[in-house]
């Protein structure tokens, strides 16, 4: 089964873009989800912490105000109930949060109080007196008992208070009585509204709870939760770590993103250990994450369509020149004379066009290529020197120039010590040595002559001389060769020494047959070997005359 290039490229672009977009979208969504969840959690922690701090600061302020009143009362050695009543009324007028303030004598009888409520009553059995006579006391939220019917209550909801009491002493340290106050818990509701109201304009489904340290009772929150215990793992964690957040499954079975902050007190106010809990529906809190996920999905689909269109356009640009080249190839196959069109735009297609043109030119000029191949066959592959085939061609040309003053001197060379190099250092080093020998012989070669590798470590140099004493010229040349090859070779950091034995014979002095001349030069070479190597020996003319 085959497919059009245009179709393949279009589908490839579409699939790759979809995979890349979905992969990147998924990774970004995951990272964004974690970042958003963390940001939301920290935001809830911040709100809870701010609320807890406000509660502590409020309680610290009220405790300080009542303490100031106590110190004013203690300034005098003896004081009258009327004076105390005046101070209490001033405090209640300045801070309406104090629902009731009263001063009791050491036995618990109320001597002065807000609006005269409970004046003359004995409160010695009440915790506000019993704890206050011992020292500074701040009690947790509780329902009103004695004051429930005595204080105004326009809303009709159950009244709740926090108690503050401490002993008042004369200058001499004698206990003059107990100063006590009931703080209306209604101020906490006002604080809740002040915290949540700004958030409701930006966020939805946010609720606040204040949970007591004792039995985790809900002191403030939605009506259905007031007075009920609230057990969440995050509450205990907040008491250990001061503040934290988590995704909690609440008793109603719904998951909420929940922030916790536990009261730590403020300055000399130790705090009551309240835990402020701020919760938000998980689906609402993470709605932006869901929106981001869907945005990535739709963006991925849009990018896929866009890249598919780009792929289709690019495939048209690519397939059109290929189609033209295919048509030209078919015409060439049919024997037509056509030119390869030039295609601009894509480097690979330009290269293909040029390659086809070059191939056509190459096929047209195949005869010249064959000539080049034949020339390559005339050289030794290892050393690059002419081989026996090249020698034959050279001799064919040179012998045609035969005359009385024309002499060809054949110098047969064999390397001394080459076998030892091969045996000790290996054939690879031996091959490199032969290449370096060939380089040195080439550097000494004359314009009128040829240097040939016969095989192994044997070489043949043919010198063409026109002169009075060609033998002396050849001897001088041979000695230069021996001297040059005696110089050390450096191969793979090894210092290698070899020698060179040479045998010479002359054409036509020794023989008119090139094959016979080569044989004579070979015999002269072995004479050099027998005489001690590394020298030059000529085949004697006398011996050649005798053989003739």
TrEMBL record:
Pfam families: GGDEF, HAMP. It is found in: Cell membrane. Residues 316-368 form the HAMP domain. Keywords: Cell membrane, Membrane, Transmembrane, Transmembrane helix. SMART domains: GGDEF, HAMP. The chain crosses the membrane at residues 292-314. It comes from the Bacteria. InterPro entries: DGC-Regulatory_Protein (IPR052163), GGDEF_dom (IPR000160), HAMP_dom (IPR003660), Nucleotide_cyclase (IPR029787), Rev_trsase/Diguanyl_cyclase (IPR043128), Sensor-like_sf (IPR029151). Residues 406-541 form the GGDEF domain. GO terms for biological process: signal transduction. GO terms for cellular component: plasma membrane. PANTHER family: DIGUANYLATE CYCLASE DGCT-RELATED, GGDEF DOMAIN-CONTAINING PROTEIN. This is Diguanylate cyclase. It comes from Paenibacillus xylanivorans.
